[in-house]
Structure formats: C-alpha cells, structure tokens
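Is this the right way to post structure tokens for a design question? Let me know if I should format differently. Anyway, here goes:
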C-alpha cells in the first residue's frame, strides 16, 4: 500500500477513537444536566465511532498492514448551554468528512482503487453524520427554550438504539 495512504488510514483509527472519546464527554455533560436521552444519543454515537475505528483497523489487517495505536487526545470542551455540544458535534463531523475526503484524494492519486472503494461507505456515512448533527442543532435552537418541548426531545433521543454498522457485521 502507498505509504501516504497507509499513514492516513492508520491515523484515522486515532481520529475515530478521539471522536468516540469526544462524544462520551458530551454524554457525560448531558448526564450531569439530567438530560438522559441526549446522554443516550451520545453514548450510542461514541459506540459508533469506536466501530468506525475498528473498521479502519480491520481494513489495515486485511491488507497485511501494521496497526499502530496512537495516544488519544483529551476532550477539553466546557459548555454553558445545551446547544453548544450539538454545534461542536456538527463542526467535528465536518472535520471528519474533510479527513475522509483527504484519504480518498490520496488513494485516488496513488491509483489505490481498493481503498477508494472501501472509503465509499464512510463518504455516505459522513453525509448521514452531518445531517443528524445539523438536525440536532436546529431542533434544540427551535424548541430548547421550552421545558415541555425539551422534555420531548430528550425522550426522542432516549429511544435511539445501537446497531452494528454493515462493514462490521459478522466481524465484531
Ligand atoms: Fe466516525 Fe462521526 O464519524
């Protein structure tokens, strides 16, 4: 595998693990604030990010590449209102999209069609991730100031359930 593509793929394991850590910290914030539904949403989001890391890790193994696990940064955000973590999540997902695009561009440059094909799942996933994050921001801005509406939003987020992403199905 092209060295640059390899390094970006390996680094993405770390980026996805950091995403998981970041969303755990958001879950902690909402848990402390009594919004257990939002905490549930981000606990599940954290699991999905761990899954994303495992998908990249599996891909490296399947291509006989070494996996180098790197130190994970500490999430350090402080929040003063309920919308801030949601905005931070949207910003973070846009950043992750830019990382996936950069790997895809490097793979294209190296004529690594297998990696381009592998990344297509993530390209679609990032669209969904950004869309979900944006919806969370919009709904909190629209309804978050009303206690009853906030309660309903929290209930909706409490109903989110985890499911194994298709690239990991049968491999967990
Ligand atoms: Fe792994 Fe939320 O993107």
């Amino acid at each position: 595998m092209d060295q640059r593509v390899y390094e970006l793929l390996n680094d993405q394991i770390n980026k996805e693990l950091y995403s998981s850590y970041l969303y755990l910290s958001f879950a902690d914030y909402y848990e402390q604030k009594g919004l257990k539904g939002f905490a549930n949403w981000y606990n599940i989001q954290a699991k999905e990010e761990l899954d994303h890391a495992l998908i990249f890790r599996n891909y490296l193994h399947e291509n006989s590449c070494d996996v180098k696990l790197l130190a994970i940064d500490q999430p350090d955000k402080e929040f003063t209102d309920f919308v801030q973590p949601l905005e931070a999540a949207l910003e973070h997902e846009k950043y992750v999209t830019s990382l996936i695009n950069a790997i895809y561009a490097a793979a294209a440059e190296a004529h690594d069609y297998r990696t381009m094909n592998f990344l297509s799942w993530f390209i679609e996933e990032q669209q969904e991730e950004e869309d979900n994050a944006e919806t969370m921001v919009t709904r909190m801005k629209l309804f978050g100031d009303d206690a009853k509406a906030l309660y309903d939003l929290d209930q909706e987020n409490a109903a989110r359930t985890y499911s194994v992403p298709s690239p990991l199905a049968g491999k967990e």
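Format looks fine. Someone answered above. Worth noting: The two ends are 25 Å apart (CA to CA). The chain has a mean pLDDT of 97.
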